[in-house]
Task: inverse folding
């Protein structure tokens, strides 16, 4: 049976009650629609593999709308050997930051001229080093900071993991190109769907 759970951080951050629908094989529209209508959530998010036509059809029948496509990219760390270009800016392993802090992510910070230039947040998923977010200050984009954060994070990961993975929105072409330059390759894709209470 499909499971709908409230997402506390998302609800607090966006100011509306947000939940996540996790589908199970064989779910039917009627019970899902019943859970949605009886619940108190304003928005429910669901993800489904682009190749899973059964789940895609169920989400459509339940009134979910496709909002984005997320691509998962993988990298075999046993083949990862890249020098970094950290002479122009210092990257340090730091601790935890806000949501990432509460969820136990490891954080790498990049500083340039004494100011925070960007960061990488990573965690462990399915025995992989999973990069949740790479962010670079708008004013410093194009200077190699994102590349260096990735390289340093992967060098650290290589000590403990055999694989690394990262998710990216299909429309974020500059990020996908960066990840491919570092060695990531597309593994799978999934749609992100939203259902809003009317």
Result:
């Amino acid at each position: 049976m499909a499971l709908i759970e409230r997402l506390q951080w998302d609800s607090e951050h966006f100011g509306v009650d947000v939940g996540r629908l996790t589908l199970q094989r064989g779910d039917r529209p009627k019970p899902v629609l019943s859970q949605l209508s009886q619940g108190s959530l304003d928005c429910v998010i669901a993800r489904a593999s682009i190749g899973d036509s059964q789940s895609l059809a169920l989400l459509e029948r339940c009134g979910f709308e496709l909002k984005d496509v997320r691509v998962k990219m993988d990298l075999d760390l046993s083949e990862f050997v890249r020098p970094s270009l950290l002479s122009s800016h210092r990257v340090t392993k730091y601790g935890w930051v806000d949501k990432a802090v509460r969820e136990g992510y490891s954080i790498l910070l990049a500083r340039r001229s004494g100011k925070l230039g960007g960061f990488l947040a990573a965690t462990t998923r399915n025995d992989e080093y999973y990069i949740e977010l790479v962010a670079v200050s708008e004013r410093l984009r194009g200077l190699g900071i994102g590349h260096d954060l990735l390289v340093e994070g992967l060098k650290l990961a290589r000590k403990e993991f055999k694989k690394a993975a990262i998710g990216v929105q299909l429309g974020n072409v500059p990020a996908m190109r960066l990840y491919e330059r570092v060695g990531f390759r597309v593994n799978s894709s999934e749609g992100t769907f939203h259902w809003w209470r009317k």
The two ends are 24 Å apart (CA to CA).
